[in-house]
């Protein structure tokens, strides 16, 4: 049999995922046919759109085990959800205290939302993470007090894939009466997430094979969590997020959640096998390669490796047909090493030598085999040329 040649290999599933064709198919009618405004429910076109949006709300709620679909608000993505959760809660509960607690390894949009609050006079505490990329629960326990409005800790880290101890964090928050928000953009659809453990949860469409430009925020109803809106208008989405909902995008997010719910477990097993094969090939062929982040408490689709002696950017330049991300990515125009790797005390040179390899729904065995061979070749070639190696 003639081997299919591989053109480009996409292994950057933490940056974004392709939209699943089944998702696009469900979205399509809501652009040109059922285009009604889901808030104009006094006629049939509006009602059709509203029905579609409410079905999607239920699909999102089901994936995260929310009690009531009304607990799901649609937003433009996890960046907006995170900002709304953190700034909205801080400003609403200002009377209660002024402390907001987060971790040092959060996504930039969480850290920057906290920084904005700091300028308004809130006290921000960023809890350190241990060398394995898991939050230091003892520090957290010490930091949360009666004046703490909100604790925001991500469910899964986007750079190293580590899974945070959500149940333990939830207990600490509940025992002190603090709200708990989790940025679950990298967790939903990959591991079981449970809204019963949190008060607020952020979701992104394009990280779970849905469209870009849509996300959701879970906002607990019992007991009710209140938020100050970020902007003002018609008072849609329980008065918290004004603006006409993008029906096709909501439908897409809902379908993406439904597919994830049904396929999560088989996909987890398949990705674990691909990851194990990939790592075995790398470790069998190369010395001085290190896996960043806890070996076990991680999602299989996010592999972060440091290749001693060479730069991650250099590896990427050597294999332009393989789409991965280097340790200085996310803000790829800066050549600063990743702050996440710095926070888990990775040596600076090893942080510069890191690659994040993301596997996902459309990754095949052939691609993993091909990409791992390419990486081994490029690393060997660069090391052979390196004066310090
Ligand atoms: C991608 C991502 C975001 C931002 O999501 P958008 O929908 O692109 O705004 C936030 N947090 C984490 C952990 C992410 O991976």
Helix proportion range = 25-40%
Compute the number of strand runs.
13
- Count of DSSP H/I helices: 12
Estimated share of beta-strand residues: 5-15%
Shape: globular
Strand order of the largest sheet: 2-8-7-6-5-3-4
Alpha carbon gap, first and last residue: 41 Å
Mean pLDDT: 96
Counting structural domains, the number is 2
Bound molecules: pyridoxal-5'-phosphate
Say which CATH homologous superfamily of the largest domain is assigned.
Answer: Type I PLP-dependent aspartate aminotransferase-like (Major domain)
**Structural class, judged by helices and strands?**
alpha/beta
> Class of the largest domain, according to the CATH hierarchy?
Alpha Beta
Q: If you compute it from the alpha carbons, what radius of gyration comes out, rounded to the nearest whole angstrom? A: 22 Å
How are helices and strands ordered from N to C? EHHHEHEHEHEHEEEHEEHEEHHEH
Q: What's the architecture of the largest domain, going by CATH?
A: 3-Layer(aba) Sandwich
Most strands sheet: 7 strands, mixed
CATH topology of the largest domain: Aspartate Aminotransferase, domain 2
What can you see in these coordinates?
With 389 residues, this protein is α/β, with parallel strands linked by helices. It folds into 2 domains: 9-17 and 263-379, Aspartate Aminotransferase, domain 1; 21-259, Aspartate Aminotransferase, domain 2 (3-Layer(aba) Sandwich). Helix content is 39%, strand content 14%. The protein has helices at 21-27, 29-32, 44-63, 78-92, 108-119, 137-143, 166-176, 247-285, 312-318, 339-343, 348-352, 365-385, and strands spanning 9-10, 72-75, 99-103, 123-127, 148-152, 179-183, 200-204, 215-219, 289-291, 302-307, 322-323, 325-326, 354-358. Strands 2-8-7-6-5-3-4 form a 7-stranded mixed β-sheet, with helices on both faces. The longest helix has 39 residues, at 247-285. The model has no long low-confidence stretch (mean pLDDT 96). The structure holds pyridoxal-5'-phosphate. Pyridoxal-5'-phosphate binds at residues 77-79, 107, 109, 154, 158, 183, 185-186, 204, 206-207, 215.
């Amino acid at each position: 049999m003639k081997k299919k040649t591989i053109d480009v290999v996409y292994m950057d599933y933490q940056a974004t995922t392709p939209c699943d064709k089944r998702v696009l198919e469900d979205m399509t009618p809501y652009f040109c046919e059922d285009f009604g405004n889901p808030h104009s429910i006094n006629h049939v076109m509006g009602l059709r759109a509203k029905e579609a949006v409410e079905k999607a709300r239920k699909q999102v709620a089901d994936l995260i085990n929310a009690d009531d679909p009304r607990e799901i608000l649609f937003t433009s993505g996890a960046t907006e959800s995170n900002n709304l959760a953190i700034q909205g809660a801080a400003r609403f509960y200002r009377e209660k205290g002024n402390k907001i607690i987060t971790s040092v390894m959060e996504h930039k949009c969480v850290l920057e939302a906290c920084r904005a609050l700091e300028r308004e006079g809130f006290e921000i505490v960023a809890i350190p993470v241990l060398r394995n990329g898991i939050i230091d629960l003892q520090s957290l326990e010490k930091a949360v007090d009666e004046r703490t409005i909100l604790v925001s800790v991500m469910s899964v880290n986007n750079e190293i894939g580590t899974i945070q101890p959500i149940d333990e964090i939830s207990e600490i928050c509940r025992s002190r009466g603090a709200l708990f928000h989790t940025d679950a953009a990298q967790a939903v659809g990959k591991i079981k997430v449970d809204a019963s453990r949190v008060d607020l949860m952020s979701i992104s469409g394009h990280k779970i094979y849905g469209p870009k430009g849509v996300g959701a925020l879970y906002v607990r109803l019992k007991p009710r969590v209140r938020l100050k809106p970020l902007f003002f208008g018609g008072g849609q989405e329980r008065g918290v997020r004004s603006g006409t909902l993008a029906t096709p995008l909501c439908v897409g997010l809902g379908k993406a959640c439904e597919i994830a719910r049904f396929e999560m477990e088989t996909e987890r097993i398949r990705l674990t096998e691909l990851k194990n094969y990939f790592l075995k090939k790398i470790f069998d062929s190369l010395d001085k390669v290190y896996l960043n982040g806890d070996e076990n408490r991680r999602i299989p689709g996010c592999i972060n490796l440091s290749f001693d002696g060479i730069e991650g950017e250099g590896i990427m330049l050597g294999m332009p047909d393989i789409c991965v991300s280097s340790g200085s990515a996310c803000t790829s125009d800066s050549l600063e090493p990743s702050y996440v790797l710095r926070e888990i005390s990775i040596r600076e040179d090893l942080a510069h030598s890191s690659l994040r390899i993301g596997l996902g729904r459309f990754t095949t065995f052939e691609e993993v085999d091909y990409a791992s061979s390419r990486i081994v070749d490029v690393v060997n070639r660069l090391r052979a040329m390196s004066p310090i190696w």
